[in-house]
Amino acid sequence: MQHPWHHLTSEEALKKLDVKVSGGLSSAEVLERRKIHGKNSLPEPPIRSLFSILLHQFQSPLIYLLLAAAGISFLIGDYKDSLVILIVVVLNALVGAFQEGRAEQSLVSLRRLAHLKAQVFRIGQQTVIPAEELVPGDLITIAAGDAVPADGRIIEAQSVMASEAALTGESLPVAKTLQALPITHGLSDRSNMVYAGTHITAGRALVLVTATGIENEVGKIATLTSATVQPKTQLELRIQQFGKYIAIAALVLFSLVLLIGLMRGIEFSTIFMIAVSQMVSLVPEGLPVAVTIALAVGVQRMARKGTIVRKLAAVETLGATSIICTDKTGTLTKNEMTVTAIYLPQGDRNIGVQGIGYSPSGAFNEISASGKSLVLEAQADPALLLLLRAATLCNDSNLISPKDPAALEGNRWRIIGDPTEAALLTAAAKAGIKIDALRKEYLRTAEIPFDADGKMMATGHRQDGVELVFIKGAPEIFFEYCALDSQKREQAKAASQKMADQALRVLAVGQIENSSLNPAGGFRALKGKVQLLGLVGELDPPRIEVASAVRECQAAGIRPVMVTGDHKATALAIAKSLEICPPDGLAIEGSELEKMTESDLHSRIDQVKVFARVHPAQKLRIVQAYQARGNVVAMTGDGVNDAPALVQANVGVAMGITGTEVAKEAAKIVITDDNFSTIVAAVAEGRLVYQNIKKLILFLFVTSIDEVIILFLALLFGYPPPLAAVQILWINLVSEGTLTVNLIMEPFEGDEMQRAPIAMTESLFDRSLLLRMPIMILASVISTFGWFLYRSYLGVPAELVQSETFTALVVSQWFNVLNCRSATRSALSWDLFKNPWLLGGLLVANLMHLLVIYWEPLARFFHTVPIAPEQFIAIGVVASSVLWVEEFRKLLVRQRMRKENL
Questions:
Q1: Mind listing the pLDDT tens digit for each residue in 412-439?
Q2: Which in 207, 716, 759, 891 has the greatest CB count within 10 A?
Q3: 291 domain residue, yes or no
């Protein structure tokens, strides 16, 4: 049973769990509680076997139809067809199983808690035990650098700071307190609690364990994650629907052929075999493996651009995305606190600071009352240097140069300590202050560490025998300690409020001259003595490239929505600066969301641009609300708290740098640079993949259906089969096979991100394909069957007519593959050379066909005879009508588009 532990005092919490600080739990109490609560670990999820992963690849109507076709082919004695179809199906399954071989393991990293150690008080003694042995009521000690092994109420604390970003989304370390808090406080605001899955960045604490295993906050997330059903991708749904259509079409064709044959007096056994072969011909057996290869090619392209795809079909789904729920910190912003504004009370001056991140390169600008900005020479400004020196000395963080051996990366400045303090050091370095030299010159003699209640820090220093005290802290508290007249105080308050209104994190910095610091006296002894040196405003700045990526999203009909654990004001400021949120856009906090009914949320969700201070269950609810309105949702995340929403989203996108292993394993896609613009680039790649799959489907079905119609017409008019069975097999496997994979390699046409997202209800056969397909099929059938009739009429030998008809159909398909490259662009344009794979495929197809016509061993097997060169040229001219008809249609489309754009 869970209690509002944050609402209890430490004494009440100890009493509730029947624990004494002096002794801890006895061995008997530990055993009794473990029986009730179990181990401090999460249950093992069932592991999918290799066989089940492989079996999953066969769960598609199209695969069922192909297997049925293979079985029927075998029964009618067409062993070659049957074997080839089976090979294609098995190959497709193996490729899919290989790509999806890593089963979803969202709980694996959570279970790593079991490998932690914990310092615990039991029977009056401190001992180290595996974290999985902790029970509610245990007293543990945690210190800077420790991972928190279980949820707990803080009993004693010394300047404790905890990094809770992985659990709450809070971008900065959180200061911990001892006081009881209002019962209404959400997870992010429970400053007297620590939680499993987080880390201590500063200080030391004695903690009473209040929840373990699945009862703690991480366990709740694990329960949510395991209970969340991962929706099928759009491609899986469309293939499923498509398979049903093909099955219906195949049955209709089978019935028609059987009926017409019986009406013409053909024997039942004969017409039955013909009907079955026609039905088998209709099924595009190369489609499953071609689609799998198309997705795999997309995976490789994305990998080169910093996107790792864990689930193959997610490639296409990302291209259909209509909503991107994105985190703020590190994705839209650099996750590097930066000083952007400084206020100096001496002269009531405002100074802007240029440069982003922890790299100490940038300039200072003096901003006049009229708003004009003039370059300021920092080294020649004593007031500015004094402020930055104080901020450097009253500071426990460090900057790490890329050249430093301690640097983790060779091209980035990094920090040790609190990001807020590190930003102050960066600003000082920009002003030319040598940090290490300054700290050696002003030796620290005493300190009062940062206190979460007092929200201030003070340090004492000695320089050439002179004692100094430097202080920094929250302005609203800091001003109470300052020796300011009423006018200066009001000016400073106004400057602080102005910075806060811009969503800056504001710090006040001051000093006391000729005074030593007495930590025992605390801050009370400093009241009325502090000289205000100035105010510093900091911001985690937006990534430079994100604004253009957001505009690209919006032009593509994709709506970015910020979903963050950060504060509303900060989130809203960043969202407005990136144009995610218009000036009058709606932002709501988790507490407001909690009070909304489902109908309220659904009616208002399209107006919301920012969700702030949200917890895991709320992120999940947001994703489900968007999906209920017919959206394809991509959700970004990096923390443990994001796992349920990442699983629920159509495409879960985890951060590769800051992301926890839990988030990465819950997601379908991982971006390696944590950058929103990389997600947008991946969306473009997803759209290209889907676009190329549509081109592939168009080509495969035009070539399959024209074969069926030609054979059907010959049957209808009483002619002998215009194509031999092995020739149809050659067309389907060799002629098509040399082109389908190469068509998948088509590059961007250039307007992919100007199109609207693909609707969830859209079929693989959309309006564009349904309009183009009959034209291309009709042109192919007329040219091929027309040639067959013409040459038969002239009395040409049947074997030669069949060889020529076979060639005419193959050549028309070569022209059709050029037609399929674009719905609007001419196949004769120079961009033909943008896909060398396709040109190579056409060359191979030509050579292979020449071999099957003129090389005697192959010709004998495929029942062909040599064709006169002049007839070959004539066939090419007739078959090219397929190209000219489609070129005329494209010309009309381009003319209409030009008129619409005028």
A1: 788 877 888 999 999 999 999 999 999 9
A2: 207
A3: yes
